[in-house]
Amino acid sequence: MSDSLRVGPGFSLADVDPASTPGFDGGKKAGARALAAGADELSDLQERLFADSLFGGRRSVLLVLQAMDTAGKGGIVRHVVGAVNPQGVRAFGFKSPTDEEKRHDFLWRVRKQLPPPGYIGVFDRSHYEDVLIHRVRGFSTPSQIEERYGLINDFESELVANGTTLVKVMLHISREEQKKRLTERLERPEKHWKYNPGDVDERLLWPAYQEAYQIALERTSTPDAAWSVVPADHKWFARLAVQRLLLDALRGLDLGWPAADYDVEAEKARLAAS
Amino acid sequence: MSDSLRVGPGFSLADVDPASTPGFDGGKKAGARALAAGADELSDLQERLFADSLFGGRRSVLLVLQAMDTAGKGGIVRHVVGAVNPQGVRAFGFKSPTDEEKRHDFLWRVRKQLPPPGYIGVFDRSHYEDVLIHRVRGFSTPSQIEERYGLINDFESELVANGTTLVKVMLHISREEQKKRLTERLERPEKHWKYNPGDVDERLLWPAYQEAYQIALERTSTPDAAWSVVPADHKWFARLAVQRLLLDALRGLDLGWPAADYDVEAEKARLAAS
Fold first, then answer.
1. How do residues A115-129 score in pLDDT, each as one tens digit?
2. N or C end of chain A: smaller count of CB under 10 Å?
């Protein structure tokens, strides 16, 4: 499944059907079963990653989630990442930058939230906002934005060199599905807090956002830090797809269990006598 | 159940049977079912807490876990706290203090890890180490330790005044159960990384630790920040009990859903036209 989601040369976002389920034959029920079946392996691999770090390993995994509003970033964090030990996760949501953050370069606040060795980091929005909303809204000049693609690639190369495996995911929903989900938020009082009038303002700029995503995906999908575009009109598929991407990333680290750095038999004897 | 676990006047740790299941009539299977049944409410209440904070609420919950090794602190984090959205959780494990931390007062590093409004914080070990291992091992003088009980009570009063609900839990296992669990770690190579020869060193000081706990529980179980002692020889019971304690704490906040601060009907019209 993962290969069919990867952004490579010639990629066109407009050609990805948000309602499709590439690489998976089943429907919603089979998808939920497959997600449940993968949860234990994900949890086990995270524990190996953590154990590895206690014995000097420097590896970590960073899941970067970008999407239009309502695409389901929060659901991914809860239903996919929620399967692993919370003590091994560093999840962070990036909001509009504070005044202090604005005084620094755009990667400053991102560096502070990077996962330590042994952890799975999750970014709900990220440094990519600085080439997405900034492009669409004109918060930065075209030359600033142009420069940022390169800065992002350099930054991510540095992360990879330091042991971080990047899993960059754009959740791709359709304009119609977004309307449905926003409408639901307005119709249910217990969902009102999730709705923001600004969501419609951004929605009205849909084509400009799609263009900004297309350019960002083209310019920053590198061999070491590839983007995956996950069709997200079906929440069950998006969750399964992100789980598979995380599983692939962790399997790729080929993590064993650390060997004891003490004398196991001697310890058994000490313990028995205690 | 929660009332029967609370540390009040005349409490005696030695009288708590680590294999008991106070306030729960069923066995392991019924306990697992009850835990699963409570997970959705816990998750729902945490979402309300988070929503509340977005609209100016200052409330948070802090779960403090203390225990002898192998008592199951990690399992609590994974199986109880794991039911809520990872983005609403700040879990932190306190290790031996670093040189920098040692140069500050003992609460300095703790203050840095407090949950922001809207979050559930989890401390795997805490400032209580400074009156537990410090007492047993003599890392601090008796007068320093004596002073700390008061400093801890003042600190926790301050947290409560600022909107934090404290859930302080000692997981109470028996010496025999600990031996069983440590033996298992030595017998299974994939568990070797969890074992530390120092665990047996501490184990040999069991009575001194029980005494240090007894004194700490007596001196720092205040009406606003009471301790609960959770019998933990049965993992399933300990998890259920901590879940109930968290549920009680969150229910006590009486959290509704925030009202919309925008015109719902006007937004429906804007959205429909978008």
1. 999 999 999 999 999
2. C
pLDDT(B176) > 90 = yes
What residues of chain B lie within 8 A of the CB of A81, using their CB?
86
If 0-12 CB within 10 Å is exposed, 13-18 middle and 19+ buried, where does residue A218 land?
middle
Question: Taking residues A245-257, what's their average pLDDT?
Answer: 97
Strands (E), chain B: 60-67, 89-93, 120-124, 164-172, 227-231
> Which candidate from A43, A200, A267 shows the least CB-CB separation from B186?
A267
Query: How confident is the model over B23-29, as a mean pLDDT?
Result: 95
Residue A205 touches partner B, C-beta closer than 8 Å: no
Tallying the residues shown for chain A, one arrives at 274
How close, in Å, is residue B57 to chain A by CA atoms? 13
- What average pLDDT score do residues B169-184 get? 98
Q: What is the pLDDT of residues B189-222, one digit of tens each?
A: 999 999 999 999 999 999 999 999 999 999 999 9
Average pLDDT value for residue range A94-122: 96
The one-letter amino acid code at A49 reads L
Question: Starting from the edge strand earliest in sequence, which strands make up the sheet with B89-93, in order?
Answer: B89-93, B120-124, B60-67, B164-172, B227-231
Q: Is the pLDDT of residue A270 over 90?
A: yes
* DSSP-based three-state secondary structure for B141: coil
Contact A192 B260 (CB under 8 A): yes
Which CATH number belongs to the domain containing residue B58 in this structure? 3.40.50.300
β partners of residue A63: A122, A167
Task: Assess A17–B contact: CB distance below 8 Å, yes or no.
Answer: no
pLDDT for B1 beyond 90: no
How many Å apart are CA A51 and CA A42, to the nearest integer? Answer: 14
Q: Pairing between strand A60-67 and A164-172?
A: parallel
Nearest to B43 by CA among B202, B194, B240, B246: B246
Query: Which candidate from A81, A187, A259 shows the least CB-CB separation from B192?
Result: A259
| A185 close to A203: Cβ distance less than 8 angstroms | no
pLDDT value at residue A1? 85
Q: Is A51 on the interface with B (CB under 8 A)?
A: yes
Instruction: Report the residue count for chain B.
Output: 274
Size of interface A-B (CB pairs under 8 A): 123
Residue A241 has pLDDT above 90, yes or no: yes
Which of A202, A238, A241, A243 has its CA nearest to residue A18? A238
Q: Which amino acid is it at B183?
A: T
Count up the domains in chain B and report the number: 1
pLDDT band at B2 (very low <50, low <70, confident <90, very high): confident
Neighbours of B85 (CB within 10 A): 20
Q: Which residue has the tokens 């937004």?
A: B267
Question: Which of B78, B196, B274 is the closest to A204 by Cβ?
Answer: B274
Q: Three-state DSSP class for A125?
A: coil
Give the three-state DSSP class for A16: coil
Angstrom distances, CA of residue B191 to CA of A47, A56, B104, B174: 11, 17, 35, 21
Specify the residue for token string 């006590």: B252
Domain holding A94, by residue range, is 2-273
- Check whether A2 has a pLDDT greater than 90: no
